[in-house]
Amino acid sequence: MRLVGRILLTLAAPLSFGAHAFAAVYAYVPNFLSNSVSVIDTATNTRIPPDIPVGNGPRGVAVSPDGLWAYVVNYTSKNVSTISTLTNQEVGSRIPVGNNPYSAAVNPAGTRLIVSNGIDGTVSIIDTATRTRVVPDVPTGTTPRAIVFSPDGRVAYVANSGGNTISMISMATNTVFGQIFARTGPYGIAMAPGGGRLYVTNWNANTVTVIDTRTNTLIGNAIAIGNLPDWIAVTPDGGQVYASNLNDNTVSVINTTSLTVTATIAVGSQPIGVSITPDGSKVYVANFSGNSVSVISTATNTVIGSAIGVGTGPYGLGNFIVQASTAPAGSIMAAPISDTALIVAASALALGGMVALRRSNLTV
């Protein structure tokens, strides 16, 4: 092989590796009592300092589909903080919403953010480009909590824990067009990948309800789980559901085929938020009184290692795990680099090497 080829391959190899090495996954955990967000590197399960200051009483988190933004719902200060995942800093002004906002969700296109306002019985619908509310707050039901979108983004489902219903909001008209009975105290809500089913925790009944979104009717009987079930998440393959049980310090695992509990996993003190990595391999659980995050392997349904210390009173309502599209703050790479750009860069370096060699009267 000619020396130029050797130079090109030598230079291109580490550059190509570097581009893929930074496709990392991070957990953004809101700390209700310390008014901050802790960031966890899920590859190493370590906390990345420093914590990010946000508004007062952060509870919910929603991440944009492109992984560039984490929206944090500040319960006490009644607004939303926007965090850039490129810099791990809050950007812009906080977005005002209703009274006692609880959780949030971003539509699949990344253009709309919906925030539930618990006391008002409404949701705020926000344009993510302008970071402003697009319409007056939309009435849903009593004490709205969790929100999830249909896979096509046309419908937002809102769990009304005080009204025993799920409100359906048309994103075309920004209005409620129907209610689904969801048994007692619907709280957390998760959509099956590809749609078709909703999984809902029933806070007051210690159960999970399954809803067929094609008919908007209940599937089977309520599934008994632990005491005061809070948040819920579904694996990307749709095979397993994980629900946190606040008073039991456990997470229940439900098989979505049999709709039965297959495991009950002990975690930290007062687990609330539950979020799953994009590859479906790990579940992250925010332990409110434990000031920690537990990590569960979905392959074995056991806790991995020790709990990760975070701020005070972590909540983690919503999807708080981000598939980073660029390098983390402080990395040598500030933006994603395509394979074409890598080849161009390697070629430029190789040509530089040729020039240097020729100037040294070496044969190339």
Structure description:
The protein is mostly beta strands. The chain folds into two domains: 1-22 and 337-364, no CATH class; 24-332, Methylamine Dehydrogenase, Chain H, CATH 2.130.10.10. 11% of the residues lie in helices and 46% in strands. Strands 8, 9, 10, 11 and 12 form a five-stranded antiparallel beta sheet that branches. A hairpin with a 5-residue loop joins strand 4 (58-63) and strand 5. Helix 1 (3-21) packs antiparallel against helix 2 (339-359). The protein is globular and about 45 Å long. It starts with a helix and ends in a 5-residue tail after the last helix. The model is unreliable at 1-22 and 327-364 (pLDDT under 50).
Can you give keywords for this protein?
disordered C terminus, 364 residues, mainly beta, 2 helices, Methylamine Dehydrogenase, Chain H, 11% helix, 31 strands
Strand and helix layout:
Elements: H1 3-21, E1 25-31, E2 36-41, E3 46-53, E4 58-63, E5 69-74, E6 79-84, E7 89-96, E8 101-106, E9 112-117, E10 122-127, E11 132-133, E12 138-139, E13 144-149, E14 155-160, E15 165-170, E16 175-181, E17 186-191, E18 197-202, E19 207-212, E20 217-218, E21 223-224, E22 229-234, E23 240-245, E24 250-255, E25 260-266, E26 271-276, E27 282-287, E28 292-297, E29 302-303, E30 308-309, E31 321-323, H2 339-359
Antiparallel strand pairs: 1-2, 1-31, 2-3, 4-5, 5-6, 6-7, 8-9, 9-10, 10-11, 10-12, 13-14, 14-15, 15-16, 17-18, 18-19, 19-20, 19-21, 22-23, 23-24, 24-25, 26-27, 27-28, 28-29, 28-30
